[in-house]
Specification:
Largest sheet: 3 strands, mixed
Number of strands: 7
Mean pLDDT: 82
Strand content: under 5%
Distance between the termini: 62 Å
Number of helices: 6
Shape: globular
């Protein structure tokens, strides 16, 4: 066996990279020893965590997807938990789970914090029977995958069992599923690091240089919003549906998977989306195909980041900055007012 590998060199999550657009997902590549160990011992010491891990892995999910560095992309794989000082300007596309010493209104045992047992907002226990992480479902706490989390299947409690095969032969965007159907999407090669740090870098939407995520929306494929609705069902509806949100105004709740009016700036397909739009208000498309004549749709991720942010309610921006009717030159052009441009 080769000499002991440095823990942070693990690259198993390279598999989350996507090949261009559509459903062509890249499998993990590289040395098997970067992720797995046959005996979990070298020189009388464990190779990874002291306790053996599923599938002979060196570490668990957060063991690979965590850093105490401010730069979240060191190492070539995505981090979802960062140390103190993390903000919306130095995270990756999904945002970040708070650390134990840096918990605020962001996640603190009420939202997307690992181990949280709170019942999800908008949760319908009659429809969502698979999730066991909340207190009423057994209190195992929010996890990464399986019956306690978002990735992989809805039947296995163990994270690794739930995402089995997902790194070597991925069949869904970010190993995300609605039932047995994979969510459709196309991911940035750098997990949107560049566009988050500097929206002025511009938008590239295809090929090896793609720098923005393109999310599925609508009714034909499992959308990214439908994935969120697995736990937050009362906050979601698809175009034409009257359940929970309504299909037209007056809305009960903000609609998702519904086309943004073409008369609005961001809904007009002749309007060129820029880096600021993708950082603060990314839109979704049918089949996660970037250029569609049918228009652009609002998704849950148009306003939120899945893992968390520095703002309340996992918002991409502080709600308090949304001020309507401001003088010319001082209008906010992101957040609520990024879509609702007539109210600026």
């Amino acid at each position: 066996m080769k000499e002991k590998k440095i823990l942070w060199s693990l690259v198993m999550v390279i598999s989350l990279l996507l090949c261009g657009g559509g459903t062509g997902y890249a499998a993990v590549s590289g040395a098997c020893s970067e992720c797995h160990t046959m005996h979990n011992s070298q020189g009388g010491e464990p190779m990874g965590l002291a306790d053996p891990q599923s599938a002979l892995l060196l570490n668990d999910c957060l063991g690979c997807h965590t850093t105490t560095r401010i730069d979240p992309f060191v190492g070539g794989y995505p981090f979802v938990r960062l140390g103190s000082g993390a903000s919306d300007d130095n995270c990756l596309a999904g945002g970040f789970f708070q650390t134990d010493t840096d918990i605020g209104d962001n996640n603190g045992n009420e939202n997307h914090d690992i181990g949280a047992i709170a019942v999800p907002a908008g949760f319908d226990s009659s429809e969502t029977t698979w999730y066991t992480g909340h207190s009423a479902g057994g209190g195992n706490g929010l996890g990464c995958a399986g019956t306690n989390g978002c990735h992989g299947n809805e039947t296995d409690l163990d994270d690794m069992a739930a995402i089995k095969g997902g790194h070597h032969d991925p069949s869904a965007y970010r190993i995300l599923y609605v039932g047995t159907k994979g969510v459709v999407g196309s991911g940035a090669k750098d997990y949107e690091e560049a566009i988050i740090r500097d929206p002025g870098t511009g938008v590239v939407t295809s090929g090896d240089t793609q720098n923005v995520n393109i999310y599925s929306a609508g009714v034909d494929d499992p959308s990214i919003s439908e994935l969120c609705a697995k736990c937050h069902g009362d906050f979601h509806n698809e175009s034409g549906s009257t359940d929970d949100c309504g299909s037209v105004s007056p809305w009960i709740r903000h609609p998702t998977d519904v086309a943004i009016p073409a008369t609005w700036a961001i809904g007009d397909t002749s309007y060129t989306l820029d880096g600021d739009d993708y950082k603060h208000n990314p839109v979704g498309y049918e089949d996660a195909t970037f250029q569609l004549t049918s228009g652009r749709m609002a998704t849950c991720l148009s306003c939120h980041r899945a893992h968390g942010t520095e703002n309340a309610d996992l918002l991409r921006w502080a709600y308090s900055t949304q001020l309507a009717g401001q003088e010319s030159g001082s209008q906010v052009t992101y957040g609520c007012l990024g879509c609702h441009d007539a109210q600026r």
